[in-house]
Amino acid sequence: MYNFNYHRAGSLAEAESALAAAEDGALMAGGQTLLPTLKQRLASPSDVIDIGAIPELANIESAGGAVTVGAGTRHADVAGSAAVASAIPALAALAELIGDPQVRNMGTIGGSIANADPAADYPAAIVGLGATVNTNRRAIAGDDFFQGLFETALDEGEIITSMAFPVPEAAGYAKFPQPASRFAMVGVMVSRGAGGVRVAVTGAGPSVFRVGDMEAALAGNFSAGALDGISVSADGLNADIHGSAEYRAHLVGVMAKRAVQAAGG
């Protein structure tokens, strides 16, 4: 690990100030990605700004047809939230599937989506539920937030503050986890709401993506059987020692059906 200056911000304003003053600053919330990266000397920021204890970033509110989750909210708190479980049970179920208890009690939703790991669970929720990502500067539509492998729409100095999830009529999440890491080899979030049907896939490709053919089929018949015969091309999908691109393409269909069933379809 290289030397760096450590700052523990007590407010969003303090975090913004420290980040602006740093030569090459890095934000840290739960540290589940940044700390291993630093230990392996894969990153050498001049300053680490810890935002994990900022009260205004760790809250959950259900009002006005949406559930708003602060960026500093731990996975375990999303999974155990009565407000989330009541309004969007699929989101609580997704959070419960992340990593292990240690990861869920340290990792944060904002840190997860800012990192944009292609196998993370939350990107499927952001896109699959049509969420809005709020920052200290603007609101970003979930469909526009993830832009590639570990790439997001965030600008330099921009800090995620919360995510607003519209409450769907029905939603379900299904995941095929990699046995060791518990990241998603394939995870699918399916939802039906005022904006129509959404099918978002994580783990299969370099970034989360939607499956238009499945969305069109489910719009007419929201049942697992409606997906019979619909396949996803393996072109461009991830391939590694755990599964080929063709295997992941197959899993997309299987997980999509399970997600629809979880949503009651």
Care to give the gist of this entry?
By secondary structure, this protein is an alpha+beta fold. The chain has helices at residues 12-21, 34-39, 75-80, 82-87, 89-96, 101-104, 109-115, 122-128, 142-145, 212-220, 245-262, and strands at 5-8, 25-28, 47-50, 60-63, 66-70, 132-135, 139-141, 146-148, 151-152, 160-166, 170-177, 184-193, 196-202, 209-210. The chain has a 5-stranded antiparallel β-sheet. The protein has a 4-stranded antiparallel β-sheet with strand order 11-12-13-14, with helices on both faces. Strands 1-3-2 form a 3-stranded parallel β-sheet, covered by helices on one side.
Describe what you observe in this structure.
The structure is a single chain. The protein is an alpha+beta fold. Among the domains are: about 1-55, Uridine Diphospho-n-acetylenolpyruvylglucosamine Reductase, domain 2; about 170-260, CO dehydrogenase flavoprotein, C-terminal domain (Enolase-like, domain 1). The chain is built from eleven helices and 14 strands. It has helices at about 10-20, 35-40, 75-80, 80-85, 90-95, 100-105, 110-115, 120-130, 140-145, 210-220, 245-260, and strands at about 5-10, 25-30, 45-50, 60-65, 65-70, 130-135, 140, 145-150, 150, 160-165, 170-175, 185-195, 195-200, 210. The longest helix is centred in the last third of the chain and has 18 residues, at about 245-260.
